[in-house]
Amino acid sequence: MPSARKKPLDRQVVVITGASSGIGLATARLAARRGARVVLASRNREALAEICREIEREGGEAFHLATDVSDRPQVEALARAAVERYGRIDTWVNDAGLSIIGRLEEVEDADHRRLFDVNFWGLVYGSLAALPHLKASGGTLINLGSVASDVPFPLQGMYSASKHAIKGFTDSLRIELKEEGAPVAVTLIKPAAIDTPFPAHARNYTDREPKLPPPVYRTEEVAEAIVHAAEHPRRDIYIGGGGRIMSAAQAVAPRVFDRIGTTMTGQQMRDEPARHPAGSLDRPGEGGRTAGDHPGTVMRRSFYTRGALHPLTTAAVVAGVGLAAAASLIGGHRHR
Hints:
By secondary structure, this protein is of the alpha/beta class. 49% of the residues lie in helices and 16% in strands. The chain has one domain: NAD(P)-binding Rossmann-like Domain (Rossmann fold, 3-Layer(aba) Sandwich). It has helices spanning 22-33, 45-57, 72-86, 109-137, 157-180, 198-201, 219-231, 241-252, 254-261, 264-267, 303-309, 311-334; strands at 13-17, 37-42, 61-66, 91-94, 100-101, 140-144, 185-191, 193-194, 203-204, 208-210, 216-217, 236-239, 269-273, 298-299.
């Protein structure tokens, strides 16, 4: 069930981590276009500065601070900087994250730990740094999980583990806030595969270039859901009907899904040599791009997600189509 509606986006201050590319960048641009004052964070200082200039050229208002989310003092400094700049925080989006492509037995411990430091602990640090300010503003915490919060993926085992951990942390935090009576909404976003630079940014232990398993959706679908949740919080939002089906199948028939999962290894590999094996695990990745270079079909929109976010509108459209069809059928009978 949705939580109580929050203030309009054009009256909000929105902090976004992982904002220099992919989902974070698409969200920053969309939120700024809709009037929010945005605070952008990532490790890529140069990309953030250019993105802020772009937003300001288009009439928006933006501020940035280079931040490694795996370092708690840097995340706390980000929260302080946002409040010093704009006086409050209304929505905090924990988006920063990365992956490793490789079999669990072959990945070095240091890389596994680094992934958890960014994906899980970065989100924990962001949530805890934001909470005092969100309690004061009656704001919204939006955490980026994944369909991998519910479903395991071969070759991305520790990424899946980090997203499972994010779900456990987010759900537990939501309960504690509810018990406390805190006016903070908590939303977990669960995207399916999204056409971002994610594969190129992953640390790759294989000898082939990685790709996303289908179905793949546009980055802007996730940004729309995040911006919607900033005003109309939801408990969970799946991006893509394909991901929702996978989650349901895993819950209902896990052993069957295990067998299906064995086919995903090939779906995550291109038939070409690896181009960027180091990825961005230990250094900032390329910034400024929301889309990747997925070689297959990219779904322009998810009707499942749009319907879940706007159920009354969807019901009205379906009813309208049904009435039109009925009228056409009746008219046809009358003319016989």
